[in-house]
Write a structure and sequence with these properties.
The complex is a heterodimer of chains A (800) and B (105). With 800 residues, chain A is of the alpha/beta class. In chain A, 31% of the residues lie in helices and 20% in strands. Chain A contains 25 helices and 35 strands. In chain A, helix 10 (418-426) crosses helix 12 and helix 13 (479-488) crosses helix 15 (510-522). Chain B is globular and about 35 Å long. Chain B contains no helices and eleven strands. Chain B is mainly beta and 105 residues long. The termini of chain B are close together. The mean pLDDT of chain B is 95. The chains are: A alpha/beta (800), B mainly beta (105). Chains A and B meet through helix 15 and helix 16 of A and strand 1, strand 2, strand 3, strand 6 and strand 7 of B.
Chain lengths: 800, 105
């Protein structure tokens, strides 16, 4: 993994300044050993591969696999391999990693004994497990528990044997170990601590059990040794390079060994007397080594925080910073919940100002935040216990990502700071996936992903971005953006819109949305050939589809005013075609049960009787309902019917993000229910009160008073502006009430836009509306007058 | 294979569908870009013969039609429902021959 990181750093994905040769003893390129166990959870070797197929070739890197370097000839600057290759070098980097330590027990090499390091190891374990019943893991550290999980998933009765008094002795203390043990045991894994293994016992040539120092024994058909790792330093030893006291080839701050032309990175290297068995310090070494080789930077390896967060058998375990409280005077804040199986411990500095470290068992969700507190030496809040207490009543524990300074390190594995993540977000990387790809944050151990997500959310909020508001997979735009693009670029067809601003062929989401935008902007006949494929079910046949696949027909009855002759005609049409008539809630008549091929004939008759399309099928103006008003009503103060007819005739045919309903009431008694409509006027003795953004339906909402006591002309001007503003800015299928609820600034803002013209859009909105009004046509009249269009109503294309 | 002549290609608007009656079966015929597809016209979700009236397009590059009733999408090539793996509609062979659409059911 570290070798791969080095190659990446050297080449940056393309041919670099060196001829690079990679030699590996395994039959495959680098893979993700951190997630090795996922190989048993359905991930394939290809899934775990770190390098994309062909990426080494593209970068001009020579690769030799399934061959092992056996010696280094430093004098001649060349290496020799087991298969007899002789490879010269100017600079040599050792990234040989480590090998599992197998304690020198009698019988340790018996068939059925394994280590847990490579994909080949896992293949061998899987094969042996097929005929085994009991599996034992020797070693209760993190890798041992990973291996135990694997054995359990392979269906074995699983035991873990640990010499120390607790599991994961390097990461957790006694209390943490006790909680962890309970969680592991509850998963059906037997845990044996304080047990020193003395001998591996075999029968008939394969393993059958373990003997312990205290005389105890344990039956086993399969044994996995996971008792730590040892640096693979044998090449360096053979070449006479300096070796650390506890193993590993000694490197300096620039990853150079005692021979400056030979570097070492990763688990095989010893720095300051220590080796590092984690990926993050290895990656840091790889970066430093790349800079050294390219003479491109002055980074140094200066040790590494060995904080870790893991999920072992579904149990979170994390330890970070000074987890054991070794600093003099350090305080400890901890909570233990043995019911939930959670242990959290904070180590606080003597002056109580800073967090030094801690450990988390059972719930490590705050790990990223706590680690950032440690690494960035952020001053602790007055009650540090709040950081680890469970969230209550919806109040989140801890603190927000916003509290972190820009220089805070977020991803320790790849050394990515908050600054870099914010820069990536500003560069339009607006998903966690995009940020990962751009910065590499979260692609190591993954523990910082929640923190990255939080930063992303906070930044997007600051940018005023609403997440996932794109129309659909075909358009990376909101409806509002598309509307703007259509207007600015004078786009007239869906083909133009998707060609310039989208991709693919569209779908049932974007096609009707774009059709609606085009209609709102240009008001062309919706049945033009290029618009027909975009129309949703009802617009497609200019009628409302019903559950049996037939259609219903609603002629317009503006304001609900209808003549006796028209009523008779409606009855005759219903009889002639066998339709079911029903009075609608919008003061008109719906005729149900027409088949597709009946529709043109029904409409020919309706048009002859003086009717026109009611647009009940469209996301468009439906009706403007009215009471009888001052002509008949003894309380009426204005002619509400006349006003309703005027409004309905003005806005009929207006396509909008969703349907629009209006009403006009002749007095304050409000019989037309104008306060439950998208727009409504209520007569006063001085004129009209204008209401907007009301709704009935699923979530009833009272309308807002936009303007009081305005005359008819002013009411219409405000309505023009209001409706056009809504049409331009709402999301698809968003009624005015929902749109209003999202409008920052509420009714005061809407008044500023509509009445005070704060955006300077007033004239433009009025002009746009006037153009719609002037270009109105009855879609049904246009349709039945064109024999080619009428043909589209044939039930079967091949039956005359 | 028994090809049955249905209609002229011009009788189907680009990127729309029509319904044809072929040997007693309702067949939905679609144009999407340069391609022609044929599925059964019966929508198994609404149990109505309406698929030919759906909007065609694609999802992740898969050509599909969305039922006009409850909007489930069907792969135009196979008839498989993209929203419910357990559901599919029959798909039929279709070709363009001398500017005529022909199907085999």
């Amino acid at each position: 993994m570290v070798g791969h990181k080095l190659v990446e750093s050297l080449t940056g994905g393309g041919p670099g300044v060196f001829d690079v040769t990679v030699v590996g003893e395994e039959p495959r390129l680098a893979y993700d050993r951190v997630n090795l166990s996922k190989y048993f959870d359905g991930k394939s070797a290809a899934d775990l591969a770190l390098a994309e197929p062909g990426s080494y070739e593209r970068a001009g890197i020579a690769v030799t696999l399934s061959d092992r370097v056996t010696s280094i000839d430093r004098a001649a600057r060349r290496v020799l391999t087991a298969q007899g290759r002789v490879l010269p070098y100017d600079k040599l980097v050792l990234a040989t990693g480590s090998s599992p330590f197998v304690p020198p027990l009698p019988g340790k090499d018996a068939p059925g004994c394994f280590v847990y390091r490579t994909l080949d190891d896992l293949d061998a374990i899987r094969a042996w497990a097929a005929s085994a019943g009991v599996g034992v893991v020797v070693g209760g550290g993190l890798l041992g528990l990973e291996a135990a999980n694997a054995l359990k998933n392979l269906g074995l009765e699983t035991h873990v044997v640990e010499m120390a008094s607790r599991l994961m002795p390097l990461q957790v203390d006694e209390m943490g170990g006790a909680i962890l043990r309970r969680r592991i045991e509850s998963l059906g894994v037997a845990v044996h601590t304080g047990m020193a293994t003395k001998q591996v016992v075999s029968r008939d040539g394969s393993v059958c059990g373990l003997l312990f120092a205290d005389g105890g024994e344990l039956a086993a058909d399969l044994v996995v040794f996971s008792a730590g790792i040892r640096a693979r330093d044998e090449l360096a030893r053979g070449a006479g390079l300096t070796i650390g006291a506890r193993g590993g080839v000694v490197i300096d701050d620039r990853c150079r060994t005692s021979d400056p032309d030979v570097l070492a990175v990763g688990e095989c290297a010893s720095w300051d007397g220590r080796t590092f068995g984690l990926v993050a310090p290895g990656y840091r070494m790889a970066e430093v080594a790349a800079q050294e080789l390219l003479a491109s930077g002055t980074g140094t390896f200066a040790g590494f925080d060995m904080s870790t967060k893991l999920k072992l058998m579904g149990v979170d375990v994390a330890s970070f910073g000074d987890a054991f409280g070794l600093e003099p005077g350090a305080h400890v804040v901890s909570i233990v919940d043995s019911v939930a199986g959670v242990y959290k411990k904070l180590v606080v500095s003597a002056d109580k100002e800073r967090l030094l470290g801690g450990m988390l068992v059972g719930d490590a969700s705050v790990y990223g935040q706590l680690l950032a507190l440690v690494q960035n030496k952020i001053r602790l809040p007055p009650h540090p216990e709040d950081l680890i207490l469970p969230a209550r009543e919806g109040k989140p524990a801890g603190f927000g990502a916003d509290a972190l300074p820009m220089e805070a390190t977020i991803c320790s594995c790849h050394n990515v700071g908050k600054q870099a993540i914010c820069a990536a977000i500003a560069g339009q990387n607006m998903t966690v996936g995009a940020i990962k790809a751009c910065t590499k944050a979260g692609t190591g151990c993954g523990s910082c992903v929640p923190l990255v997500t939080e930063i992303l959310k906070a930044e997007l909020k600051k940018l005023g971005v609403t997440v996932h508001n794109y129309l659909c997979e075909h358009f990376p735009h909101t409806r509002q953006e598309l509307f703007h693009l259509v207007k600015v670029h004078d786009l007239k067809t869906f083909g133009e819109v998707i060609e310039h601003h989208g991709k693919g062929r569209g779908c049932e989401i974007c096609k009707p949305a774009v059709a609606s935008i085009l209609a709102s902007a240009w008001n062309e006949y919706v049945w033009k050939d290029e618009h027909v494929p975009l129309q949703d079910t009802n617009d497609r046949f200019l009628a409302n589809i019903q559950r049996d696949g037939t259609y219903s027909v609603v002629p317009r009855v503006p304001g609900g005013e209808i003549t006796a002759d028209q009523l008779i005609s409606l009855g005759e049409v219903a009889k002639r075609y066998g339709l079911y008539p029903k009075i609608t809630g919008g003061q008109r008549v719906d005729l149900f049960g027409a088949s597709v091929d009946q529709l043109p004939n029904v409409w020919r008759d309706l048009i002859a009787a003086g009717f026109e399309s009611g647009h009940a099928y469209g996301k468009a103006l439906r009706t403007v309902k009215s009471c009888v008003g001052s002509t008949w009503c003894r309380y009426g103060v204005q002619d509400s019917v006349g006003m309703a007819i005027k409004l309905e005739n003005r806005y009929k045919g207006l396509r909008s993000p969703h349907k629009l309903k209006g009403a006009a009431s002749g007095c304050a008694r409000e019989c037309a229910e104008a306060q439950g409509k998208d727009f409504g006027v209520i007569a006063t003795d001085k004129g009209y009160n204008l209401y907007v953004c009301g709704n009935g339906g699923m979530k009833p909402q009272h309308a807002q008073l936009l303007a009081a006591d305005v005359d008819e002309e002013t009411a219409i001007r405000y309505l023009d502006r209001f409706l056009m503003f809504y049409v331009r800015t709402a999301d698809r299928l968003e009624r005015t009430a929902t749109w209003f609820n999202k409008l920052e600034g509420g009714i005061a803002y809407l008044r500023q836009v509509v009445i005070d013209d704060s955006l300077g859009l007033g004239d433009e909105l009025e002009r746009d509306m006037q153009r719609i009004v002037d270009s109105y046509q009855c879609e049904w009249r246009t349709t039945v007058e064109d024999p080619e269009k009428v043909k589209r109503f044939r039930q079967f294309v091949n039956v005359p | 294979m028994n090809w049955i002549d249905v209609c002229s290609l011009d009788e189907v608007l680009p990127d729309t569908g029509v319904c044809a009656l072929v040997e007693g079966k309702q067949v939905a015929i679609f144009r999407l870009g340069p391609e022609v597809y044929a599925l059964d016209n019966f929508d198994p979700f609404s149990k109505t013969f309406v698929l030919s009236r759906g909007i065609v397009g694609d999802r992740d590059g898969i050509p599909k039609v969305a039922s006009p009733m409850y909007k489930q999408s069907f792969d135009l090539r196979t008839g498989n429902c993209l929203d419910d793996k357990a559901v599919s509609v029959p798909s039929y062979d279709v070709r363009i021959c001398d500017g005529r659409i022909q199907v085999s059911v």
